[in-house]
Amino acid sequence: MFPRELTTVGIQNQESIGVPSIRNDAAFLISVVGVTSFFAVIFQFLPGEWGFFMPYATAGISIVVLAIGSTAPGLLEVLINQFSKIFPDYRQRTLQHEAGHFLAAYLCGVPITGYSLDLGKEHTDLLESKLQRRILGAKNILDEKQVDLLAVVSMAGVAAEGMNFEEVVGQNSDLMLLQRVLNKSETKLPDNTQQSITRWAVWASCNLLNDNKAAYEALCEKMRSGASVAECIEAIEAN
After folding, report:
1. Is 155 helix (H, G, I), strand (E, B) or coil?
2. 123 vs 156, which has greater pLDDT?
C-alpha cells in the first residue's frame, strides 16, 4: 500500500497520515511563551522590588513549561487538550472523527457501547466489546483477521478527518491504539509491514465511508444532536 493510493480514496493530504500532529502542542507552547514574555516586559515597570522579581517569575513559567514539554510531555496533555478547544474547527473535527469510528465499527460488526463528543472527553466505546475480553491484556494474542478488523476500526477516525481536512489532528491516540493492537499480533510484524497495514486500514476505512456516504452524514447529524447509540444505528440502517 503506497501513500499515493490514499489520495484516490479522498485523503486530502496523504503525507499527514501516520505522522502525529503537533499543531495543538506548538500553538500551546507559542502562546505560553508569547504571553509570559509580554507580561514580563510589562512587569518590569512595577515599583520597587516587584519590578525586579515579577519579570523573572513570569519568564520562569515559560522555562518550566518548555522543560516539562521536553522531558515529560504527557504532563502537559490535559492543558494542551483544553487549549485546543479554541480552534474553530475543533467541534467539527471531533464529530467527523468519532462518526468515522462509529460507522466503521458498525459496518465491521463491532458492537458500539457508547460515545461522547464532549470537549476533552471524545471517544467511541467499541473495540474490547467485540472480543468480549481485554484485547490488550498481557496474555491476549490477536490473529490476522482480528488485527485487520481492529486496524480498520482504529483508523476510521483518521480516515474521516483526513477526507475533510488538510491536516489530521486527532490521530495521535488512534495511532497509539493501533500500535498496541499490532503488538498483539500472533505474527511478529516488521516496521514496514506495520506501516503498510496503517495505510491499508485508512484506505479501507475511506472506502467504507465513501460507499456509505449518506449513512455517514445521517450519523453525523444524529451524533451532533446527542442521540443515543440505538438512534444512531437506526439512522445508519435507514440510509
Report:
1. helix
2. 156
